[in-house]
Design brief:
single chain; 156 residues; alpha/beta; Glutaredoxin; 6 helices; 5 strands; 44% helix; globular; disordered N terminus; disordered C terminus
Amino acid sequence: MGWRDRVLVRWVAAGLLAATMVAGTSPSVEAYYSSTWYEDADGYGKALRQQHSAHVPVLVYFRVDWCPHCRALDELLDEHEVRTRTNQVIKVRINPEHGEREKALFKEQYGASGYPAVFLLGEGGASTRLSNAGPPERFLRQLPAAEPAGGDTQEE
């Protein structure tokens, strides 16, 4: 990555941080870093509790096993740079086919109708739908900038 790209990334990150603060989330005093993915409706509840203490956004990812676009997004989320950045937010993966509570989150709470559906939930409750299209740089531009940290020290 050239110096122009690094400057652009920093500029975009600063803008995302400002937008995140306006949306009701605030940067954590202690940086959050975790590779944990919470699962389904129970995991969603845990993610919200974790958000209350960590003060970071929640990435809510609705997917189903049979969806080829979901598998493509899984690959994107597994890329090193994307994984590193998503480890700085709380993550929950929900399969609406796993039960009524999961289906209600998908359809009623988030108003989604197709897979995959990805949202960034701010601490104030405001959610923003993210594009799931690659390349990784495009997806990363939608995530808030966070302080670098190490280890899975913030897990519940």
